[in-house]
Amino acid sequence: GENVEQHPSTLSVQEGDSAVIKCTYSDSASNYFPWYKQELGKRPQLIIDIRSNVGEKKDQRIAVTLNKTAKHFSLHITETQPEDSAVYFCAASKGTGFQKLVFGTGTRLLVSP
Amino acid sequence: DTAVSQTPKYLVTQMGNDKSIKCEQNLGHDTMYWYKQDSKKFLKIMFSYNNKELIINETVPNRFSPKSPDKAHLNLHINSLELGDSAVYFCASSLNMMTSGGTMYPGEQFFGPGTRLTVL
């Protein structure tokens, strides 16, 4: 089955810096890659997703890139702010038939003012 | 206007007891899920129902039994609770399929607020 690895497990940056979180997946049939943000004590919420027919997607300060050949995808946050501090999860899904999201192990991002 | 709701928010109980967690979604979604998030924050899917039918059943002890009385509800019953069952349980829902240029893709999963289960 699918296996998703996520790095780093923790990431500390200064406000205004960029942050990059990387994930790799094992199943070449996976075609949907969402990113979820979970603030302390809250529910995971989708922040951006990418499908296998595109290589990059951007939404304001957040971007995701996908390299299907290498089976890598990454989350890029620019101009980080303290409110970006949270745990970020990548996930992968085949998207055919019934969706099963396999989550990465999470990255705790801390943005210091 | 809560999209996905769960009750209770907190559940503290003794080992060996039986307990239930309820989930409801008002988004008109056709697929619902139960996830377990342990103390290390790992999120693992347990079950998924599509139109009241079980479609995903991960390697979960049979002490856990999901029930979906209708498309908007997915409840989780746990028998003979053990210490290792302590975790946060999240319900989620999604529209099963979306199309983009003729390709089928899954829709966004919306999570409930979670139920923190503590087994003493």
Class computed from helices, strands and strand pairing of chain B:
mainly beta
Radius of gyration of chain A: 14 Å
How many strands, what sense, and barrel or not for the largest sheet of chain A? Answer: 6 strands, mixed
Residue share in β-strands of chain B: over 45%
Q: Strand tally of chain A, please?
A: 11
List the helices and strands of chain A in order.
EEEEEEEEEEE
The number of strands of chain B is 13
- Rough shape of chain A? globular
Number of helices of chain B: 0
Low-confidence stretches of chain A: none
Give the overall average pLDDT of chain A.
93
Main sheet summary of chain B: 7 strands, mixed
**What's the assembly state of these chains?**
heterodimer
Compute the CA-based radius of gyration of chain B: 15 Å
What is the terminal-to-terminal distance of chain B?
34 Å
User: What class would the helix/strand composition of chain A place it in?
Assistant: mainly beta
Structure characterization notes:
The complex is a heterodimer of chains A (113) and B (120). In chain A, strands 2, 4, 5, 9, 10 and 11 form a six-stranded mixed beta sheet that branches. Chain A is built from no helices and eleven strands. The mean pLDDT of chain A is 93. Chain A is an all-beta fold and 113 residues long. With 120 residues, chain B is mostly beta strands. Chain B is 0% helix and 57% strand. Chain B contains no helices and 13 strands. Chain B is elongated and about 50 Å long. Chains A and B meet through strand 4, strand 5 and strand 10 of A and strand 5 and strand 11 of B.
